[in-house]
Amino acid sequence: MTARVDLDDLGRRLDLRKRPRSWGGDCPACSYKAAFAMKAGKHGGVRAFCANGCTLDQLDDALQRALGSDWTPPARLPDRDVATQRAGKQAAAARLFAGSTPLTAADPAGL
Questions:
Q1: Model pTM?
Q2: H/E/C letters for each residue in the chain?
Q3: How do beta strands 46-50 and 36-40 pair?
Q4: 58 band by pLDDT with thresholds 50, 70 and 90
Q5: How far apart are CA 89 and CA 71, in angstroms?
Q6: CB-based contacts of 73: which residues, under 8 Å, 6+ apart?
Q7: Tens digit of pLDDT for each residue in 40-49?
Q8: How far apart are CA 59 and CA 28, in angstroms?
Q9: Is CB count within 10 Å lower at the N or C end of the chain?
């Protein structure tokens, strides 16, 4: 994204609704109703997400078409770093699961 583009301006230009910490509405890539969210990233960029499963490349393409020069896709982590993060998250989930207890003794899965 170009330097300091106003997130509120982008939200209005994409016809999104203001939420407490983000903007949301119809996805610009797949047009799925109320599936898209956009908020400020940690380092001044914009984070975009589609609950319908659009890839980051699809979202970047749609935002580039909609916003023109005001949208520059954010830098992505190398695949090696993504794999390392994924492995760390899986290990954390396994630790959480291992430390949990069943809801009932008769139903260990809690179903």
A1: 0.62
A2: CCCCCCHHHHHHHCCCEECCCCEEECCCCCCCCCCEEEEECCCCCEEEEECCCCCHHHHHHHHHHHHHHHCCCCCCCCHHHHHHHHHHHHHHHHHHHHCCCCCCCCCCCCC
A3: antiparallel
A4: very high
A5: 30
A6: 56, 60, 63, 64
A7: 887 777 889 9
A8: 7
A9: C
How do 23-25 and 36-40 pair as beta strands? antiparallel
Nearest to 52 by CA among 71, 73, 74, 29: 29
- 84 compared with 110, residue with greater pLDDT: 84
What tokens were used for 14? 């994409």
Residues in the chain, overall count: 111
Spatial separation of the C-alpha atoms in residues 108 and 3, rounded to whole Å: 53
24: its two tokens: 């949301």
Q: Across all residues in the chain, what is the average pLDDT?
A: 83
For residue 49, with 0-12 CB atoms within 10 Å meaning exposed, 13-18 middle and 19 or more buried, which class applies?
A: middle
Task: State the amino acid at position 58 in one-letter form.
Answer: Q
In 3D space, the residue among 10, 78, 84, 91 whose CA is nearest the CA of residue 47 turns out to be: 10
